[in-house]
Amino acid sequence: EYPHYPPCSPRDRASFAYETVSKRWPVILTQVIDAIYRACDSGTYATPEAEEEGKELIRKVGKLKYNISRNAIMEPIEDDGGANIELYNSMLSFLELQQQNMWFTAPWLYAECYLYRHLRTTFAFSKHWKAFDPFRGQKERAFKEMGKGVYDLAEMMHKLDTEKEDLDINEQALEVLFSDMIQMCLWGNTVDLSLLTSLDVDHLAQLQQVGAAANSARSDLILRNDTDALWTHVRQIKNARLDIVLDNSGLELFTDMVLADFLVTHTPFFSEVVFHPKTIPWFVSDVMPADFFSLLSAMTTPHYFGQAPSPSHEQYVTSLATRWQSYVDCGVFRLSSPPGQAEGEHMGEVVQENGVDWWVGPGVYGLMDENEDGIRALEALRGSGLVVFKGDLNFRKLTADVRWPPHTQFDQAIGTLAGRFPLLALRTNKADVIVGLREGFAQELDQKDKDWRWSGKYGLICFCPGGTV
Ligand code: F6P
Ligand code: MG
């Protein structure tokens, strides 16, 4: 039976799960309350009726916070017409049988997904706040601080454009560049607002070290690196489709798009990219369709990131945005989103795919083929040349978030997903679960740095080859 080990759980007081449920969630929920207060003073939410509803929402989020702190029972998700309710509630009934249906006794992964799904229901039942994303302001404010990362990467892409012909003939150079791009995209995942309880500018500056020099300085921090096997796969495909199951908005999404652009524009391997966002506000900073489009418009908004290092840098960013917008317009870059989900005030044009809501459910990926939505999600990935899973939460879902021995093989940990399609996980470690390490390595790390599993300082590049779905 899969998975064979007990779940990561806040029942273990020494775990990051416990730290999260007891300390980090209350901060995140307080930020939600702040966002409602702020919205009440502005725009569409400033009417007396919306404000009244806002107060009610604040009361409900406050109650949720209180319920978590007293380890209350998690109630079934109410039917708001949204996705995954059946799966959430059937898993909850199962947990109830084992008396694990409380905030501090449920498996951490389930409880955390439930938290964001439950929040969505709260807003969905209102009249004025249905489309409200309580994390949107945070996502935008953080991206504005990311100018350095954006300008550096845009300059790098500009240089690549001018060196294109050399790359066409020099496979060795292409391989080095490919590896750099993968690492750049990995470190993009360090930027995660759910870990930053306040916006610390120095910390944000440090997180933006995403160029080639920063890569080599940090390569020791990659605890497993399958880039060679990945390259062996990638170099033999042509005009394939790349799928990216996205994680965070802002600089991380920017690095995802740089990787996508590099592969489509500068290599023969891929000719189209499908980005898979979330359809509800999720783990604070995850990409929703609106965030995808606001990134493109931020790049062409003068002084969005403050003063550019030079007028040329401003130009590099604008021309990148122009190319990406043209890729969106002609369908080379597509957003996978279920019909009706990607509409609304900030959305612009969306190229619809046969998208699914599986990514905001509680299900682990190794059991995707046991659920109808999971099967639809697999269907959407069929035929992909490479599916990239970004970030920590995707890694937790890939590995079922259980306490595997750290030297467990990655392909064992991902259950029935192994071999279905070529799969790459790019994850900086922000949670207890770990697999894919050589034997004894975890113990060495325990001696060296007690926070190595969750500080976000270390990363993994895990590749599992495969045919098509
Ligand atoms: O709070 C839980 C958590 O899943 C952490 O493990 C991690 O810090 C964050 O939320 C999500 O990280 P990411 O954005 O990389 O998926
Ligand atoms: Mg995230």
Automatic annotation (TrEMBL):
<comment type="similarity">
    <text>Belongs to the damage-control phosphatase family. Sugar phosphate phosphatase III subfamily.</text>
</comment>
<comment type="function">
    <text>Metal-dependent phosphatase that shows phosphatase activity against several substrates, including fructose-1-phosphate and fructose-6-phosphate. Its preference for fructose-1-phosphate, a strong glycating agent that causes DNA damage rather than a canonical yeast metabolite, suggests a damage-control function in hexose phosphate metabolism.</text>
</comment>
<keyword id="KW-0479">Metal-binding</keyword>
<dbReference type="Pfam" id="PF01937">
    <property type="entry name" value="ARMT1-like_dom"/>
</dbReference>
<feature type="domain" description="Damage-control phosphatase ARMT1-like metal-binding">
    <location>
        <begin position="20"/>
        <end position="438"/>
    </location>
</feature>
<dbReference type="GO" id="GO:0097023">
    <property type="term" value="F:fructose 6-phosphate aldolase activity"/>
</dbReference>
<dbReference type="GO" id="GO:0046872">
    <property type="term" value="F:metal ion binding"/>
</dbReference>
<dbReference type="GO" id="GO:0103026">
    <property type="term" value="F:fructose-1-phosphatase activity"/>
</dbReference>
<protein>
    <recommendedName>
        <fullName>Sugar phosphate phosphatase</fullName>
        <ecNumber>3.1.3.-</ecNumber>
    </recommendedName>
</protein>
<dbReference type="InterPro" id="IPR039763">
    <property type="entry name" value="ARMT1"/>
</dbReference>
<dbReference type="InterPro" id="IPR002791">
    <property type="entry name" value="ARMT1-like_metal-bd"/>
</dbReference>
<dbReference type="GO" id="GO:0005634">
    <property type="term" value="C:nucleus"/>
</dbReference>
<dbReference type="InterPro" id="IPR036075">
    <property type="entry name" value="ARMT-1-like_metal-bd_sf"/>
</dbReference>
<keyword id="KW-0464">Manganese</keyword>
<keyword id="KW-0378">Hydrolase</keyword>
<dbReference type="GO" id="GO:0006974">
    <property type="term" value="P:DNA damage response"/>
</dbReference>
